[in-house]
Amino acid sequence: MVFSDIPTLRAAFTIQQGLDDAPSWTSVKQAIQEIAAVQIDTVSVVARSHHLTLRNRVKDYEQGHVWKALRERQVFETWAHACSVVPIEEYPYYWHNMQRDPTTYNSWYQKLYNEHRDLMDVVEARIRDEGPLGSRDFEDPSGKKRGGFWDWKPAKIALDLLWARGRIAVVERKNFQRVYDLTERVIPSKYLNQEVNRDLVWRFFLERSLECLVAATPKQILEYISLRNYALDYGAEQRPKNRTKIMEQLLAKLEQEDIVIRINVPQSKQQYYILTRQIPFLHRVQDRRYSSSRAWFLNPFDNLVWDRRRVKELFDMEIKLEAYVPPVKRQFGYYVIPILWKHNVIGRIDPKADRANNTLILRNVEVTLPQNQLTEAIESIREELQRFKDFHDLDQIRIEKAHPAKLKRSLTS
Do 41 and 301 contact (CB within 8 A), yes or no? Predict the structure, then answer.
């Protein structure tokens, strides 16, 4: 058994995620290969989350780079950790989930599928005949004005179902809107036609998730790239009621094969596992005990904070997405961005890109450090604030509220 502690696991995780002294990778493709997936989200109070995730990991990243990688078939869009872009080479493994029997999904999905299955054929036929199309290329027969996530027109629902079933794929995004084509015209044939033993799918996703986490509990492994969907659901009659228990059984199997090993973490009540091949890396981190002096502004959908319970366990910090919370109930702000420094989450900001006034506004900023550490951290946070401003091509910074109050002056002086 390997012995470790929470600070070492925390440092190893952030380093593995490319968050050390500078962006770790030179291309979108390389970054996504290293962290398995980048989640796509629509909130645009500052740059959308996928751009912020990649900004921290790719040298000289610009917001069009991820869509260029999509057009060039370096990555493809699928349901990994929510809607994400993942390496194109991994398509054969994700294909298995796309082929699941619709009756194994929840009742809401089954209802949608049954109501729109005929329309799906019609929409697919149009794409086959006309080439790449998006939702805006289909009229809404109701004539009503629609808005909101749950008020899609029928054709948009049909497109989403076709995409989920692997019958069409996202060929590109225009103004953030998906454009679809037939899967065989999007996914390179060597990946589309590559056969993968179904019994190996769970193994691939388990090892992929654990590699990106470095060390994790069974529940944490399940959460990283939605392993529960790909590895553990083989049909309604076989769907496990306790996925964590199933994960423990799978890990035990890999233990017997010497692929994974348990970690003794005295500060935790949970059982952590690590891939045997990553033990030397963990030891290097433990022996070096180094801490990056650079501060990083993450985003609520960054891979590092996907699993809020893991964040609490490793970083002792509660992170809440409040964008969908009524304003009167928000505890901190609309779009809460954690601050990472020395491999620890030390605070948060609530930013807004005010394009009209060419200003980056911090509606709120908070750093939870004792005074002796705060003084050291301020310079790193100020530098990151400047980088964040420049990434958004803004000229000025305005801080509206800060805790402690001295931050308001210190970060803009």
Answer: yes
Residue with tokens 């601050």: 339
* Helix (H) and strand (E) counts in the chain: 16, 16
Exposure string for 57-78, b = 16+ CB within 10 A, e = fewer: bbeebebebbbebbeeebbbbb
Q: Tokens 């939605």 correspond to what residue?
A: 226
**156 vs 76, which has greater pLDDT?**
76
Q: Is 292 left (phi over 0), alpha (psi -120 to 50) or beta?
A: beta
User: How big is the CA angle at 100 (ends 94 and 104), to the nearest 5 degrees?
Assistant: 130
Q: Which two tokens stand for residue 60?
A: 């000289």
Single-letter code of the amino acid located at 107 = S
Are the CB atoms for 85 and 66 separated by under 8 Å?
yes
User: What is the value of pTM for the model shown?
Assistant: 0.93
Q: What SS3 class is residue 48? A: coil
List C-alpha distances in Å: 115 to 26, 120, 144, 155, 164.
45, 10, 19, 12, 15
Question: Each residue of 297-323: pLDDT tens digit?
Answer: 999 999 999 999 999 999 999 888 898
